[in-house]
């Protein structure tokens, strides 16, 4: 909201800058000013000054300058309205009346927060009782002690279908408010309510002021479709605008000048156990634009901690596309790639803080991740392919809205392209020149023009989300029959094949259309309850794949192949699909080997190289002639 200038001035007159700054910085009076060590930078000689008469602070080492409001926003990640409310309360001044509709909305939100706080107390109480023994044992098994459990406000939702509903009703809470707070559901055609969270470990989700606004629940039964369940969207909770542990991480992030971004609740808590209190989680979603802005309220270069598998890297690539338009001087992202199969909790538990710090020290800059993403996308062994590689990078740079950041990105990309395509380097490029796969320095092979000593793990990448959408919209790319049938069979028989999701995720395809569809299916099944064929198809159509789905259904082989037919026996479906996947893997491998053999023959025309190429081509021909079933 807009505040009257007179109100803001009254706060500034009643609250001295030195009082607020002095809570974080040891100040020494020097004449009319106070001096101290910069809170924004590690230094030995004081360069930070506060002037109460002029009502500002100034940091000579960083150039930061502002009012008492700015200081709270800089050091605590508050928005302007939050800073105003905090200082008005300190000054004993009432905030001016707002628009009646805003007042009504805030009163409603305050009521919902009270309900969430009541639910939080209920969950915590149940964790400490006999009914919560299994949940408590689970947390202890994960390495949590009483201090951590209490610090994060963890609780337990009993298996009783109406335990929380009854508790809240006994406190006088109306049904509609329980539903609006996201704590219960009302089955269609019935008047009674059912608890949303049942037999789950509960993780309270708080806002930037550390008020409970939602919950996450981890199922204790293996048979439950959704292992993790979050509150639905409510007037208080918008998943893409909230970061788990944001309020608690604020002070540590300010002190360390570092903010870690992980995937889930247990990652945050596991890091806290290891002494890293500066971690937040994106609640299982790819980081959104709103969350990036939140991160930048605390530090200028937050570090995203990524799983070292292909799914983790694809998630990082989505973040790159979201971050590029938002970049501004001094504000960016860094990416720390975890060892494959390890999450932050694993690393800290097995190797202590040192193991995790080693990963953080190798964090890569955003421009390095962008460079490697495009480097791994496709071969660049011909002039046309090099031009395409260059074009993809330049298109990415054009997304940056800030003119100076865009200019320097463009200069850096041009410099790297010139070095990469210099004659001496083209003659000695290494494996990725002939295949869309990059082997970084940690794997002892390949070629990379890295900046700042960044190290990359082995990965493969698909196209950017924008490029994939463009390909899907055009509908012009011919779908390879074998690849198309593998995808169609998975969609038609997702009940039987979802247990083999990891094999689908690892499978490479020739066309961007099918790569994009593969990623969408993996994302849908990974983050939702198991979807039957109709549910999965409906989801895919709903997110823009209707045209591609139609093209798949209309292919001639859609009725000919046993494992693709809707009416086929489940065992035939699974065995046929796995055979097709194995065949596809082999053909992709042989295609890469063929490119390498062609390059070897071009540079050294020996009989041995010729025979090797012929042998590969013969095997490809033999496999291509096989039917999929």
Structure description:
Helix 3 (68-76) packs across helix 4 (80-91) and helix 20 runs antiparallel to helix 24 (533-553). 35% of the residues are buried. The protein is an alpha+beta fold and 629 residues long. It has 27 helices and 18 strands. The protein has a five-stranded antiparallel sheet with strand order 1-2-3-4-5. Strands 13-12-14-15-16 form a five-stranded mixed sheet, with helices on both faces. It has a four-stranded antiparallel sheet with strand order 6-9-10-11. The protein folds into five domains: 5-91, Alpha-Beta Complex (DNA Primase, Chain A); 100-236, DNA primase DNAg catalytic core, N-terminal domain (Alpha-Beta Complex), CATH 3.90.980; 246-362, Dna Topoisomerase Vi A Subunit, Chain: A, domain 2; 368-460, no CATH class; 475-624, DNAb Helicase, Chain A (Orthogonal Bundle). It comes from PS1 clade bacterium. Belongs to the DnaG primase family. Residues 257-339 form the Toprim domain. This is DNA primase. It catalyses: ssDNA + n NTP = ssDNA/pppN(pN)n-1 hybrid + (n-1) diphosphate.
């Amino acid at each position: 909201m807009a505040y009257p200038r007179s109100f803001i001035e009254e706060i500034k007159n009643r609250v001295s800058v030195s009082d607020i700054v002095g809570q974080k910085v040891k100040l020494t009076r020097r004449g009319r000013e106070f001096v101290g060590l910069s809170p924004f930078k590690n230094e030995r000689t004081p360069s930070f000054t506060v002037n109460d008469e002029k009502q500002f602070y100034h940091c000579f080492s960083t150039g930061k300058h502002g009012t008492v409001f700015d200081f709270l926003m800089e050091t605590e990640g508050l928005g302007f309205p939050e800073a105003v409310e905090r200082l008005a309360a300190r000054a004993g001044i009432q905030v001016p009346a707002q628009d009646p509709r805003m007042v009504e909305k805030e009163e409603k939100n305050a009521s919902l927060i009270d309900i969430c706080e009541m639910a939080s107390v209920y969950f915590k109480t149940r964790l400490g009782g006999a009914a919560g023994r299994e949940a408590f044992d689970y947390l202890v098994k994960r390495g949590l002690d009483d201090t951590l459990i209490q610090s994060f406000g963890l609780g337990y939702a009993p298996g009783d279908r109406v335990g929380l509903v009854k508790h809240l009703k006994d406190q006088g809470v109306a049904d509609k408010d329980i539903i609006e707070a996201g704590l219960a559901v009302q089955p269609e055609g019935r008047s009674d309510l059912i608890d949303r969270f049942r037999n789950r470990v509960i993780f309270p989700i708080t806002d930037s002021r550390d008020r409970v606004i939602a919950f996450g629940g981890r199922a204790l039964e293996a048979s439950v479709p959704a292992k993790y369940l979050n509150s639905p969207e409510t007037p208080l909770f918008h998943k893409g605008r909230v970061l788990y542990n944001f309020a608690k991480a604020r002070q540590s992030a300010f002190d360390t000048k570092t903010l870690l971004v992980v995937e889930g609740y247990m990652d945050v808590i596991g890091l806290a156990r290891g002494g890293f209190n500066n971690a937040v989680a994106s609640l299982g979603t790819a980081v959104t634009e709103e969350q990036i802005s939140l991160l930048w309220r605390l530090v200028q270069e937050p570090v995203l901690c990524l799983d070292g598998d292909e799914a983790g890297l694809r998630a990082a690539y989505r973040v790159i596309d979201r971050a590029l338009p938002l970049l501004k001087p001094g504000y960016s992202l860094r990416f720390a790639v975890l060892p494959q199969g390890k999450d932050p909790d694993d690393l800290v538990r097995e190797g202590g803080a040192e193991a995790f710090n080693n990963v953080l020290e190798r964090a890569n800059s955003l421009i390095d991740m962008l460079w490697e993403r495009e480097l791994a996308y496709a071969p660049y062994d011909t002039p046309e392919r090099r031009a395409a590689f260059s074009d993809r990078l330049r298109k990415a740079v054009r997304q940056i809205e800030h003119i100076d950041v865009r200019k320097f990105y463009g200069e850096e990309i041009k410099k790297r392209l010139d070095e990469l395509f210099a004659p001496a380097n083209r003659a000695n490029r290494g494996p990725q020149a002939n295949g869309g796969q990059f082997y970084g320095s940690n794997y002892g092979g390949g070629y990379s023009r890295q900046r700042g000593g960044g190290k990359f793990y082995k990965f493969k990448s698909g196209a950017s989300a924008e490029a994939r959408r463009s390909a899907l919209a055009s509908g012009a790319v011919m779908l390879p029959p074998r690849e198309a049938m593998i995808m169609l069979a998975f969609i038609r028989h997702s009940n039987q094949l979802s247990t083999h999701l990891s094999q689908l995720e690892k499978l490479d395809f020739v066309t961007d259309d099918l790569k994009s569809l593969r990623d969408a299916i993996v994302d849908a099944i990974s983050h939702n309850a198991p979807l039957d064929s109709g549910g999965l198809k409906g989801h895919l159509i709903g997110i823009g794949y209707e045209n591609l789905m139609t093209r798949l259904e209309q292919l001639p082989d859609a009725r000919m192949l046993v494992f693709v037919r809707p009416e086929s026996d489940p065992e035939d479906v699974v065995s046929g699909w796995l055979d097709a996947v194995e065949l596809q893997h082999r053909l992709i491998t042989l295609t890469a080997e063929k490119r390498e053999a062609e390059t070897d023959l071009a540079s050294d025309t020996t009989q041995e190289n010729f025979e090797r190429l012929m042998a590969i081509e013969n095997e490809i021909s033999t496999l291509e002639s096989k039917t999929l079933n």
